[in-house]
Design a protein that fits this description.
The protein has 149 residues and is α/β, with parallel strands linked by helices. Helices cover 40% and strands 17% of the residues.
């Protein structure tokens, strides 16, 4: 399931809000810059974020996108600061890592079924495959670094 050799990191992505996706992509980008291959295993709302058509709904500069409710009042300020800083969109960062061969994205098969998705065709092109938690647990054993978002 995983690439041979080199350090590996696994990120379990449960959350599908813009702020979580932005943080996850920044974390993954930093890891890949260190030469670490990143695997993302999508769960529940992470799966939802990668369903066909949903990444477009989660733009980091859209105050009406799905942001964490707890910090909703800070979103306009955060967006303004991201514009000033030239912060890259979470999806663009993931695309760059994919092009560099440093990112593999899996969806949980059970979570996919909960959204009515039975094949990879229901997902955005960035998703590599649908697999189960057993395989994700095996992958976790092979990884040097583990994060839960």
């Amino acid at each position: 399931m995983s690439e041979e050799g080199g350090k590996k990191a696994l990120i379990i992505l449960f959350n599908g809000t813009v702020d979580a996706l932005q943080m996850m992509a920044s974390l993954a980008y930093g890891l890949t810059a260190m030469g670490i291959h990143v695997y993302i295993f999508l769960q529940t709302w992470g799966v939802w974020a990668f369903l066909k058509g949903n990444p477009e709904k989660l733009n980091h500069l859209d105050p009406n996108a799905r942001w964490s409710e707890t910090y909703k009042d800070l979103v306009p300020e955060i967006i303004e600061n991201m514009k000033k800083a030239g912060t890259a969109n979470w999806y663009e960062l993931l695309q760059e890592m994919k092009e560099d061969g440093m990112l593999t994205v899996y969806s949980c098969s059970t979570a996919a079924l909960q959204f009515g998705v039975k094949s990879k065709d229901g997902f955005d092109e960035i998703v590599d495959d649908i697999t189960g938690v057993f395989e994700a647990a095996q992958l976790a054993e092979e990884c040097d670094i583990f994060y839960y978002v």
